[in-house]
Structure formats: C-alpha cells, structure tokens
Amino acid sequence: MMRKALALWLLLGSVHAAQAALFSDKEAHQKIADLQQQLTQLQGKLEEEKKLRQSTEGRISALETQLKSQGMIEMLNQIERLNGEIAKLKGQIEVMAHDVEVTQKRQRDLYTDLDTRLRKLEAGPSTSPAAPAATPAETPAAPPAAPPATDAGAELKEYEAAHNLFKSGKYAQSAEAFEKFLTAYPESKYAPNAQYWIGYAHFSQKNYKGAIAAQQKLVQKYPEHQKTPDAMYNIANSQIQLADIDAARQTLKDLIAKFPLSEAAPLAKKRLAALDALKPKN
Prior knowledge:
Elements: H1 2-123, H2 149-167, H3 171-184, H4 191-204, H5 208-221, H6 228-241, H7 245-258, H8 264-276
C-alpha cells in the first residue's frame, strides 16, 4: 500500500512538473512572439522613415535641378540677348562702313577735281605781262633774281605725278611719291595737300592707323589750312573703321566746333548723328 501511495505521489509530481515546464515554454514562446511583433513594427516604421527620407531627398534634388535649369535658362537668355545686340551693332557698323566707303569715294573724286582746279588757279597765267618800255634818259633797272622756272615746273610736275598715281588707284605708289615730294619740297605750297593725300592713300589701303598718323601731321602743322577739316573727317572715319567710336565722336565734335562753315562740317554732323544712334538704349 505504501508502495502504491509512493508511486502515485511520484506520478502526480512528474505530471505537475511537466505541466510547469509546459507552461514556462508557452510564456517564452509568447514573449518571443511579442518581440517578433515589435521588431516587425519597428521594421515597418523604419521602412516608412526610409521612404519619407527618399521622398524628401527626391524633392530636394528636383528643386535643385529646377533652380539650376532656371539659372541656366536665364543665362542662355541673357547670352541670346547679348548676341542679338552684338549682331545688330555689327550690322549697323557694317552699314556705316559701307556708307563711309561710298562717301569717301565721292569725296575723293570731288577733292581730286577741286585740287586740280586750285592748282591751275595757283599757277596763274603762263606768260607775264610785258614790262613798259624804258625812256631814252632812263636806264632800265636789273630785274630781281628769280628762281629758275624749271624748279617750279619740276615741283608741280612731281606733285601731279604723285596725284595721278592716286587717281589711278595706285595708292601705295602715290603715298611714296608724295613722301618724296615733301622731302624735296618741304615748304611747297602744295605740301599740305600732299600730306592730306598721303593720309587718304593709307585709308584707301585700309591702313587706318597710318591714315590717322598722316592726317594728324597735317592738322598739327597746318591747323588753319583748308584741307585740315577734311583731314579731321578722314581721321574720324579711320577711327570708326578701327571701332574706336568714342575717339571718332570727339574728332567729329572738334571738327564741327573749329570749322563750322567748312564743307566737311555737314558731313561730320551726319556722321556724328549716326554714331549717336549706336549708343545702347537703357
């Protein structure tokens, strides 16, 4: 009996221990399940945070791209406007350059004709009037010594030869011939004209710096000569060809102020008005 009771007691104890052990496993599984659920929730929140961050980064990147694009577009628009203005100015300068060339050709023809007529007037009649006959009681006085006629003839001949070279379009040879003329006859009455045609010959060869230098010599040495306003006008046109517009404006203003009644003054006024039209408008 005692043995049966002991066996029963041992059986009940083992059952109770098994139940206790089973209960402990369930709690552990439950805790594990709870932890897994929490981990899943945390992972879900983390994914949401990642998606939100990616979305925010995408929006920021899009905004940066948009701003960059807008900046580039504005820069391109500005460049386009500037190119348009440059093209417009270039076209106006080309038109003006053509106008200058046409005007200079007309002037060249007019000045050539005028120069020829002036030289004929300055040379005077080829024969001098006869001297009155001396009375018997008078002894005719010896005439004053005069320079040989051949010198004056040679001077005019050299000047005309250089001028003919210019008229025939041989500008380089013409400039060289006029330089030789000035070396041989520095005080000639034709010297200012010769200096002017040197400058014009350089201009006709598109040597605008040389034209300016030659015409400035005329302006400085013969400030009141009739060719001086024409020389200043040629300087201004040379400065235009060199794109030195400010200097050209000033030269034209000086011409108009110093020689308001000259034939070059109206041309200078028209040229100055054309240059003023090139000023950029605000």
